Amino acid sequence: MISEPELDGDTSYLITEVLTEEQAPRPPRPRRPWLWALGGAVVASAVWGGALYAYGQRTEPGPNLGGYRQVGEFCEKAQLKALSGILGKRGVDGSGPEMDDPAVYEASCSLTFGLPESGYSVSVGYTLHKVIDPGPEFAARAKYYGLAMPVEGVGEAAFFDGRGGEGGELRVLDGQVEITMSIYEQYSTDADGNPTERKDPIDLSGIEVPMSQDALALMAALKK
């Protein structure tokens, strides 16, 4: 006869489970992938925003002015010694309006040579372009004002016109600078308002040579 184990005193089949208050630690909960993506986007946005701000604050260097600068008493810089040897003694000077702007600086001067009743007036202009490059427009403007004769050895480019033998106009480009120089005959009139005949008129053929010499001297003086 097969008896029940518990009746025979065999207790090996019993399993005792002990419950305690301490439990094994739970494994760390994995971070959601979208949180990592959001954090990366925030950091990237901050970096990009900082880069844009730094770029906006950066000051772009201006063009090379080649040593040219703003000057005081422009008429003193424009001595025009070569023209004085042709046109006669230098007379009264008159300073024109001066423009001083972050983009451009301009100065001008009017001078007289020879006798008041039969002399010559000369105007000189100086334009310093601080931002734009005047080069692409220079030849076009010279052509527009009727200056078709190129003059070598003066700045980067220069053009001249003799104005029918009664004067002359020279325009010079040197980097960011434009120099203009014009000569006009002065006339006196009679009681009826008609121009009187000039005594001992000066032959102005080849006047572009002393004008070019004076332009070179002025360019050098403007850099001092």
Give a short overview.
The chain is of the alpha+beta class. Helices cover 29% and strands 23% of the residues. α4 runs antiparallel to α6 (208-222).
Name the descriptors:
224 residues, alpha+beta, 2 domains
| Amino- and carboxy-terminal Cα gap | 133 Å
Number of helices: 6
What would you call the structural class? alpha+beta
Q: Could you say how many structural domains there are in total? A: 2
- The coarse overall form would be elongated
List segments where confidence is low: pLDDT < 50 over at least 5 consecutive residues: 1-8, 11-20, 34-38
Number of strands: 8
Q: In this structure, how is the largest beta sheet organized?
A: 8 strands, antiparallel
What's the overall average pLDDT, rounded?
81
**Approximately how much helix is present in the residues?**
25-40%
Could you spell the SSE succession in H and E letters? Answer: HHHHEEEEHEEEEH
Sheet-strand content, in percent, reads 15-25%
Task: Write down the Rg.
Answer: 44 Å
What do these coordinates show?
The chain has 224 residues and is an alpha+beta fold. The protein folds into two domains: 30-59; 74-222. It is 29% helix and 23% strand. The chain has helices at residues 5-8, 33-57, 74-77, 81-87, 135-144, 208-222, and strands at 90-95, 99-100, 104-113, 120-129, 149-150, 157-161, 167-174, 177-185. Strands 1, 2, 3, 4, 5, 6, 7 and 8 form an eight-stranded antiparallel beta sheet that branches. A hairpin with a 2-residue loop joins strand 7 (167-174) and strand 8. It is elongated and about 120 Å long. The protein starts with a helix and ends with a helix.
